[in-house]
Each structure stands twice: as structure tokens, then as C-alpha cells.
Amino acid sequence: MGLLTEGTPLSWEETKKLASHVREHGIKQFINIYKKLKERKGDVLKWGDEIEYIIVKFEHEKQEAKVSLRAVEMLEVLNEAEIQNPNTVKFLWRPEFAAYMIEGTPGKPYGGTLAHFNVVESNMRNRREEASELLKENECLMTLTSFPRLGCPNFTVPPSQPTPNEGGTKSLFFPDAAVFPGHPRFMNLVRNIRKRRGEHVAINLPVFRDKNTKIPVDDSHRIRKAALPDCVYLDAMGFGMGCCCLQLTFQACNIDEARILYDQLTPLCPIMLAFSAASPIHRGFLTDIDCRWNIISGSVDCRTEEERGLKPLKENKFVIKKSRYDSIDSYLSPQGEKYNDIPILYNEEDYRKLRDNGIDHLLAQHIAHLFIRDTVSLFSEKINQNDEEDTDHFENIQSTNWQTMRFKPPPPHSTIGWRVEFRPCEVQVTDFENAAIVCFVVLLTRVILSYQLNFLIPISKVDENIQNAQKRNALKDQKFWFRKDITTDVSPPEANQCCKGTKCETTECDLIGLMTVNEIINGKQGEFPGLIPLINSYLNGMDVDADTHCTIQQYLKFIQKRASGEIHTTASFIRDFVTNHPNYKQDSVVSDEINYDLLTTLKDIEHGEKSCPELLGYSATSKTRENIPHALKNDF
Ligand code: ADP
Ligand code: MG
Ligand code: MG
What we know:
Blueprint: H1 12-17, H2 19-37, E1 47-59, E2 64-68, H3 71-84, E3 91-95, E4 101-106, H4 120-132, E5 139-142, E6 156-157, H5 184-197, E7 203-206, H6 220-223, E8 231-234, H7 237-241, E9 246-251, H8 255-265, H9 268-276, E10 281-282, E11 285-286, H10 293-299, E12 325-326, H11 348-356, H12 361-370, H13 392-398, E13 402-403, E14 405-408, E15 419-422, H14 431-451, H15 459-469, H16 474-477, E16 480-483, E17 512-515, H17 517-522, H18 531-540, H19 546-564, H20 570-579, H21 592-606, H22 613-616
Parallel strand pairs: 2-6, 12-13
Antiparallel strand pairs: 1-2, 1-4, 1-5, 1-9, 3-4, 7-8, 9-15, 10-11, 14-15, 16-17
Helix pairs in contact: 2-13, 4-14, 9-15, 11-12, 14-18, 14-19
The structure holds adenosine-5'-diphosphate and magnesium ion (2 copies).
One magnesium ion is lined by residues 50, 247, 421.
């Protein structure tokens, strides 16, 4: 997220009154952006990653690990370099939702030469080191998707207590002090989302049922009617937005290429979610899910009872199926249109305005659909804007539609082009793994564009995959809808119909089949070539220096092994660690002691002090380097 300008947040009541103002001007602003920039072309591939970190504090004498609420303090120092030298810093640092989180990106996006793949991991490593220099004794910057004991008693340093009856969060478990206090946006979102919804957000995660697991898992269901007895109940935005992820943004050469990338990467979102699964433990319990996705989705679900279909519509206009954090609802490229098989809600008036201003159906429906969400955060300084120049109202709604993919128009008056963001991945423990995932996905975009591959499947199938991807051990146990025929443009005669004209529901057909992550990534003889073999054949035709070649091959080998199940996903590694811990009581409980041992182990693996072939394979090293040698500047 861009640097946050400070300001004065409006109360929920004031914000609510201005919802249609934001909608009206946000749409106008998009129309103006579109008119100015629709013809923009000739941009080259640029791309960058975003990594979120948790500041962990180890209390060795007590054998406990906690989150350290020092993000504000650290960011003040980290941002100093950027303020002094905005164009030459190696890393950019941003606040995130929680007071124990920071986000880092490369100082400048990477460019379109293969040699850039060889600097990614080094940048990640140096980034981690730069921030780590500000750590206090026994603190560690960790790339954990979820902090296992988030919301357990005394999980923060300094100690803080939840305040169920007052403050912003009003959670049974998550203290206000754990929300990033350096900018009002975050607490404002917490409050407004709860107020708009009319009650606490509620997430019920099925507990992993072991031999001695106690049901009910705790007393939550006695206190809150939303809590289910056999689930781990979470009641605060922090349980979701306090998780960390790995994101990627790509610049396309023009708007049409951006639409293609947006669409083609969509079916890969669930696959990469299952692949990167890293968060099986929540609020001190092993759960039956491996990923953060639905938790974040629930943690910002601001839909009212009417919108959730629990009451007849009176004040609200729509029953809305998904939270504002979820998988995308529609494709944007002409090729994708036939696969838009779920109803797309929007205000007819908004859609009309967009259409009347020359915006085609697919884009108009996408933008109008984003605007079915009301603003949940508005600052008094930003109410009145010049729609010709400002884009804050558009960005207000765009940046609070947290979906698997994001279609990003160029910022006004900048050198940046049309971009798409790939948002499903969970963050991995080591820079090696994160760099491998990043390079894999960027290479896929090159393969898709060069070979004009077609991964499209009905959007309803992508939704189904997103749910399956989060199940325990999905990588090994689940099958996913995936397109078999990726070299043709053949599409179903009608939305939601498969190539044989039957309804695309459970049956496989020539076009789409059910595959494991292994089959998708490594291939299935006679049926599907596999993403890695496709990347390798693309790379065969490329001129690349020996070091970069070696690094890419190491990354691809690692991806292959993880996809095949030869090595663990982060989630299954964590599960195994817990269930094999000598003090685990087969009761799904991840005690302070187990948490401490787990985090110590993950820290040692990250620091290279402990080898861990079962997570990383035997050769998880690359030839990554800090800079690209001068001679290697040919574009791909
Ligand atoms: P967000 O929309 O998530 O707030 P940012 O605008 O902060 O994203 O940028 C996120 C990522 O985009 C970073 O990794 C950054 O390196 C990358 N990035 C910056 N400029 C470009 C560009 N012109 N093209 C592609 N990626 C870019
Ligand atoms: Mg982002
Ligand atoms: Mg972020």
C-alpha cells in the first residue's frame, strides 16, 4: 500500500452518510483515469513483490514467544532513508494492520530481463537484514503467515489485554493495542466494519479433531451466540488482517494485456494458495484448515444482515454472496467473458455512467461491481476532491475490495502503467521459498503471454477451488478444476456449459478436468503438460547467464518437489512439528511451550542454522546476488 497520508477519520455515522458521495465521485474519477490512460501503451514488464513480517519476541527464560508491538518505532527509522533519498533506497517499508507487522518491498520494481530473477532473493535477504538491525535483544523478524497464539492470553510484548466492552475492537481476545497505532486508518476500519455489519465479525474455524480434543473447544459459545462449540471462534479484524502474505504486482504493456494477465492468473490463485498454505494454527489451536484466506475474508466482512440474506432487504439494495475480501467475481478480457458464470451485482446507474463514457461492458461491470461496497473509511480532508485530478474516492473503494487479483490503473501523472496484482499466496518462512514462488509466478506470466496460453475455466469453478485449497493438506488430498486444453481458445457455447453442451458441474470434459496440484505443476502424462515443463520449454529458447540459470533451476526444482508432495508445505510441516512434539497432548492445543519450540525452529531454519530438507529439499541454495552485472541487460 502507498505511503499513508495522515488525516482525521470521520465517525461511522458521518462516513455512512457520505457513501453515495464517494460512489458518485469514485466512479467519475475512474472514468477520468480511463479516458486519459486507455490508450497508454509501450510500457515494459516491471514487477515487484511485497512481503509482510511479524516482529516476534522470544522470552527464553519462560520458553515463550510473543508478538512485539514495535512496528511504529521501527518504521519511523526505516522510513527515514526513503524520506532522504526516495529514488535510491533499496527497500520501501510500509505499515500494516497490526502493531507487530511491517511490510517491505524492493526500492524499485524489477525489470524485464531474466537476470532480475537472480537479485530477488538477495533483495529479500538484505531487506530482512535492514529491518532486523533495529530489533532488540531476543527479537526476530519472521515471515509467518499466522502467529500461532494470536489472541491467546498475554500474546503481546508489552503486555496488553483485550477490552470486550470498550474501545475499537471490542474483542474477547484481540487487544486494541495490537492494532497499528501509527495511523488512524486501521482502527477506523475495525470500528466501521463492525458498525456497518451491526455486530462483531465472526469466524468459526473447524478445530482439528485429535484423540483428546475437547469439544467445546472453549467457552466462547457461552458468551457469543455467533461462536460454534466445535470451532475456534475469532471475533476481530486482527485475526485476519494480522496475518502476513506474499503479493506480486506486474506491469503490462497496455490495458488489454493487463486484462489478459488478470484473467489468466485467476485460475492459478487457488492453486498457489494450496501450494503456499502456511497457516494451520489459530488462537492456539490446530485447525482443520491450512490457509488464512477465509479468515481474512470473515475478518472484514462488513455485510449487514440484509446483505447476508438473513433478513429481508429493506435498507440495503442487494444480497451479496461474498465479503469484500474474496476471490474475484468476473473476468475482464473478451476471452474471459464466456466464463463469467456467476451473477455480478452492480447498480444499474453506475454501470450506465461507465458505459455512457465509452467503457466496455466487461470493465464497466467490474468497476460497478467494486462499487457495490460502501466506503468504510473516510477522512475529512478527502471529502471534496477535484475529480479531474484526484483519485482518492476511486482508490478508497478499490483498495478495500481485497480480492485474489487486483486490476490497477496507472496513477495519475506517473510513469507507471496498467498493472495487475497477484494476491493469494501465503508468506513462506525463508527468503529462498518466497523468491522461488515469486520467480515462478513471474515466469508463468511470460509463458502465458509468449505462448498465448489459455487457463480460463468458469469463475464458479475457481470459487470452488478457492474453498478446497484451504482444507487441511489440500496440496496432497484435493483435486482442483483446471483447464486441460490450454493451447486453444475453445470456449463453452454458453456460460456454465462445458464443451459437450452439458452443464459444467461435476463432470469432467475435454476442456476442464479435476487435477491435483502435482499434476497441474508437474504435468500428467497424456493429459496436461504441467506448468514447470512449460516454463522450462520457454526458458530453453532464452539466453541467460549461468548464475541466473542455476538460481532459476533451483527455484523450479523446489517448486516441483513441493508440488509433488516430496517435501512438506509450510502448513504440513507446522502440523507435523506440533503433533510430534513430546509435550503435545493430542488435544489440538498449541501451548506456549510448543509455540516457542516451533518458532525457534522456524527461526533457525530461516537463519540457515538448521537444515530442513523435509521443508526445503536438499539443495535450497541459489546463486542470488545483490546487483545485476552490467553485461546482462537484454529484455525478454
Ligand atoms: P499496493 O497496491 O499493494 O499497495 P504498491 O503500489 O505499494 O502496491 O506496490 C506494490 C508492488 O508493486 C511493489 O512490489 C512494487 O515494487 C511494485 N511496483 C512498483 N512500481 C511498479 C510498476 N511500475 N510496475 C509493476 N510493479 C511495480
Ligand atoms: Mg499489495
Ligand atoms: Mg500489505
